[in-house]
Amino acid sequence: MANVPKGLLRGGKFNQNHSTVIDVSIPLIKKLNKLDYVTKIILGPIRQLKSGQIRIVVQGDIQAGIKVFVRGSGCGQQFFVYTEEKEKLKDFIATEL
Asked: I need a surface site. Which of 41, 47, 71, 85 has the fewest CB within 10 A?
């Protein structure tokens, strides 16, 4: 788990169900928060995983956006990113890989 930079999870785009993020997801969250076409970011719980490669995976569409999984070296976290421009968001995330 990361020491979240002060103010990162504030604002109308975030829910307060989970307020921690894994280290490798902080740069992505910062960038998603700045996108005009992203309306909400729902943080999922952090799960412990076996050691593995760090990666970002778009897991598929949801009704209001897309589901993203960020995997760190020993943990992972799922995000639900709300947007009406799913393909544009998928392209943006693909460039971040």
From this structure: 47
